[in-house]
Amino acid sequence: MLNVETIDLFYGASHALRRVSIAAEIGKVTCVLGRNGVGKTSLLRAIFGLQSIRSGRIMWDGEDIAGLKPHERARKGLAIVPQGRDIFPRLTVYENMLTGFAPLAKPLRTIPEEIYQLFPVLKSMLNRRGGDLSGGQQQQLAIARALITRPRLLILDEPTEGIQPSIIKDIERVIKLLAARGDMAILLVEQYLDFAQELADTIVVMERGEVVMNGPKASLDAERMRRYLTV
User: Helix, strand or coil for residue 92?
Assistant: First the structure.
């Protein structure tokens, strides 16, 4: 289980996260909602060690991992699908997936057949360059690469951004299947309430670097959430 406990994060003099606390449990989906610029991506960067926190704790399986480097967190079972996907455009689909081997011990450096069951389109595109794929196909590749690391915490940063509706439904299906397996926690950052409500067990709403709503999906006022998401 992930427990982020009252963390503060600064960019220079700018106070980006203000005593933010969230949790993500194995077998459940926690969704962080908020408009652009409220601190959602900063929160994910803090969890994965891409940005240092000023105070607070980031607990994973009872251990404070706030002092660990990103690759050390990856070896402990954290994986991130970043906003914008960050696939390697000149590498093939197959080569992009092989980069998921980095945190794994040698005996585990295989591509599970499940990857092709979840994303059948990738099997037919193994030799195509990543940069030649559509945005939706790149998103599927980025999720597949993260799953190859055998994560126990899967972090997805706005996976629906710029994606056609048919592939959004495919991604929704995959997230539901992964949560139902009961062997990983899923932390999802989104702007779209409808997508979040379809998937989330717990919803966290952020505003100006702070958590303003947090609880089981059924306990939160949908109209109040929409007001926080309206530009």
Answer: strand
Task: Write out the E strands in the chain.
Answer: 2-11, 14-24, 29-33, 55-60, 63-64, 78-81, 153-157, 185-190, 202-207, 210-216
Task: Look at domain 2-229 and name its CATH class.
Answer: alpha beta
Q: How many CB atoms lie within 10 A of CB 63?
A: 11
Which pLDDT band, with edges at 50, 70 and 90, does 164 fall under? confident
- Those residues whose C-beta lies under 8 Å from the C-beta of residue 51, and which sit 6 or more positions away, are 9, 11, 42, 45
Report how far apart, in Å, the C-alpha atoms of 187 and of each of 107, 180, 202 are.
28, 14, 10
Q: Is the pTM of this model over 0.90?
A: yes
- DSSP, collapsed to helix, strand or coil, labels residue 60 as strand
Q: Could you tell me how far CA 163 lies from the centroid of its own chain? A: 16
Contact 199, 175 (CB under 8 A): yes
To which H or E segment does residue 46 belong? helix 40-48
pLDDT attached to residue 166: 87
